[in-house]
Design brief:
- The chain is α/β, with parallel strands linked by helices.
- It has two domains: about 10-380, no CATH class; about 400-555 and about 595-620 and about 640-659, 3-Layer(aba) Sandwich (Rossmann fold), CATH 3.40.50.
- The protein has a seven-stranded mixed β-sheet, with helices on both faces. The protein has a three-stranded antiparallel β-sheet with strand order 5-7-8, with helices on one face.
- The longest helix has 30 residues, at about 75-105.
- The model is unreliable at about 1-10 (pLDDT under 50).
């Protein structure tokens, strides 16, 4: 998010059309977040890129003027930033943390405390980058997720002013410096977009080029354009932004090359000047300017309201609720601007206001850290064994072979790994995605008891289908490596037994190569048939060296078996649901895998592979599957992945291969 320059002290330079451009940016983001299923603005996230360009332009314009006139002071610059950014941020952080104290379970509040701490330190983008991946908590459960963009801007503000001041002192070529840094940052962006989209999205080094595009405009502010050309540029600029917001989707590789369109559009509008047609007639409209003036607090408020609605309901808000959230966000933004931001920015005794604002954010950061360290303050709730157990289950780390085995290979982004346990003469390989490797604690239990009689290998990749030919064009692009690595391992180590969990994997941006064709794995029959045809070929390859077992679908339910959903939530608090039956009909759980299990049975019949079923170990042999074991301990950590404490003692379906 960007902050408007002080329109009191710089009134002669004030451009209302830039506030109007802010309105376009913030409304794009708000609509994208509030109505994700309406497909109105599937690319509304580009509003952040518009803000980056505006920020780079306005901040650099101020810096150039002050440095050239020998009035520049780091203390003065950062004081203005604090008075502009910190007051609204402090109010938002305080409100979000206070409300989280009421409605969040301990594990959730601990995560919120972490978000507050990192948000106050403008490090949210680094945290999201380090957490991103298959096992990251859903974005909708993070009320302060949106502070990543504020982090990038503040990191730019930390580096750019002193660098620019030094360059002026050394009489360096400022234009060349800007272009050089811009090109370097853009090159990093393109490189990461091809290899690591998460890093590309969150790291400042791949985003600074967008702010530097604005800085370049500020440096060449004397460019003279004919009136007709200005009108044309402004029309092209707004068209580029609107086309991006309407046609881009979250599944695309972004920022990458695609970010050029909204960045160029924003730069064009700024370059065209306040008298260009679009700027004068649309962006300088009183309504647009008014929304632009409250764009920063509007950005701050809208996402926490949306995220809390997800958390409380356990599902997205209805369209009616979303409209209400947008209205509430606008009202909160206006009140924040009117009663908090304005008095601090434009009132007297600015030095004191700066100190108070900085102290408030620092104290809130410390409070967030304390809540994080205190594990979400479970003492908030009355003594309840059920709540403690549910909370403990949600805190369980999803098992990975890296937790306690000899790691032979590990992809640092967590998308593939090879690990080994046991020293027996017989060799067994277990391969699949996360729904397979959470059986690993049973291997460790047998090893601890001296009963593991094999050398066992895990070849795994979170969310990866273990079938050759699958091409994923997103953060799981490395999945293709897993199937090939297993085949190499079986041949090299002379593995006698292979256990596979290769379930069909409908997914956007994924394809499977079959007989020279690239077939989308989007849920269609053609992709499914190609998937299992490739699996059949793969099983036959493995059978040249080993006996192959296929694991049928395992029980999972994001509602009935999920400890995070075993509580009653409301706008006033959270409590354990005491009168709900958490046993799920096994027929319902089996139905989830009816088609894929039928396909696996067909592959087994065709190839002679053997089938394994984990249902009896997890659910027993009755008609329902309980979410609990022992003294009402949850079996699952999230409704999909079994807790290690359960897997160790209760998963016996592989024992005959291991002992």
């Amino acid at each position: 998010m960007t902050a408007p320059i002080n329109t009191t002290t710089l009134a002669h330079n004030y451009r209302p059309d830039i506030d109007g451009l802010r309105a376009v940016a913030v409304l794009s983001v708000v609509i994208f977040h509030a109505f994700p299923n309406e497909a109105w603005l599937p690319g509304g996230f580009i509003g952040v890129d518009v803000f980056f360009v505006i920020s780079g332009y306005l901040i650099s314009k101020i810096l150039f003027g002050e440095i050239e006139q020998h009035r520049f002071s780091l203390a003065s610059f950062y004081g203005r930033r604090i008075r502009r950014i910190f007051p609204a941020l402090a109010v938002c952080l305080a409100a979000v943390l206070a409300y989280g104290f009421v409605v969040l379970m301990p594990s959730e509040l601990a995560q919120l405390g972490k978000q507050v701490f990192l948000g106050a330190g403008f490090l949210s983008n680094f945290a999201l980058w380090s957490e991103s991946g298959y096992f990251d908590r859903a974005a909708t459960s993070k009320p302060l997720l949106h502070l990543w963009s504020l982090g990038i801007e503040e990191q730019f503000y930390i580096l750019w002013p002193p660098l620019l001041w030094i360059a002026f002192k050394l009489k360096a070529a400022i234009g060349r410096l800007i272009i050089g840094l811009l090109v370097a940052s853009f090159a990093v962006n393109i490189a990461l977009s091809l290899t690591d989209t998460s890093s590309d999205f969150y790291l400042p080094v791949s985003r600074f080029w967008e702010l530097l595009a604005g800085a370049a405009l500020a440096w060449r502010r004397d460019i003279a354009l004919k009136a007709g050309l200005k009108h044309l540029i402004s029309l092209a600029g707004i068209a580029a932004i609107l086309v991006s917001a309407r046609l881009f989707t979250a599944d695309m590789r972004f920022p990458g090359w695609l970010a050029l369109l909204p960045v160029a559009g924003s730069a064009g509008i700024i370059l065209a000047g306040s008298n260009a047609f679009v700027n004068r007639t649309i962006l300088s409209n009183r309504v647009a300017v008014s929304v632009g003036l409250i764009s920063y607090p509007l950005y701050l408020w809208h996402w926490p309201l949306i995220a809390f609605s997800y958390v409380i309901r356990g599902k997205p808000p209805t369209s009616f609720m979303a409209f209400g959230i947008v209205i509430a966000s606008l009202l909160l933004a206006w009140a924040t601007y009117r009663f908090i931001e304005g008095p601090v920015r434009f009132g007297s005794n600015r030095a004191r206001h700066t100190q108070i604002a900085a102290a408030c954010v620092a104290v809130l950061g410390a409070c967030g850290l304390a809540v994080w360290v205190a594990a979400g303050v479970p003492q908030r709730f009355p003594a309840s064994q059920d709540l403690e157990k549910l909370n403990a289950a949600t805190l369980d780390v999803i098992y990975a072979p890296t937790n306690g085995m000899n790691v032979l290979e590990y992809d640092s982004r967590g998308h593939s790994m090879v690990a080994q346990i046991g020293q027996g003469a017989r060799k067994v390989a277990l391969a699949g995605n996360s729904a397979m490797f959470h059986y690993g604690p049973r291997f460790q239990q047998l090893a601890d008891e001296g009963l593991l009689a094999v050398r066992a290998y895990f070849v795994t990749g979170p969310a990866c289908p273990l079938v050759p030919g699958v091409i994923a064009r997103d953060e799981f692009a490395n999945c293709a490596h897993v199937a090939n690595r297993l085949l190499e391992l079986v041949q090299k180590e002379k593995v006698q037994t292979v256990v596979l969990g290769p379930h069909y994997w409908p997914r956007k941006n994924a394809f499977i190569e079959r007989e020279g064709k690239s077939i989308p794995l989007d849920g269609g029959d053609e992709g499914r048939r190609a998937f299992y045809a490739n699996l059949e070929d793969y099983v036959r390859q493995l059978q040249l060296n080993a006996t192959v077992y296929l694991v049928l679908g395992a029980p999972q339910s994001l509602t009935g078996l999920n400890p995070q959903r075993m509580v009653t939530r409301g706008v006033t608090g959270v409590r354990v649901e005491t009168n709900v039956d958490n046993a799920v009909p096994i027929a319902n759980l089996r139905a989830v895998y009816a088609q894929s299990d039928a396909d696996l049975r067909a592959v087994a019949e065709s190839t002679g592979a053997k089938l394994l079923d984990v249902f009896p170990d997890v659910c027993g042999n009755g008609e329902t599957c309980s979410a609990f074991f022992g003294t009402r301990e949850p079996k699952f950590t999230d409704g999909v992945h079994l807790r290690p404490v359960f897997a160790r003692k209760h998963l016996h379906f592989l024992d005959f291969l291991l002992m």
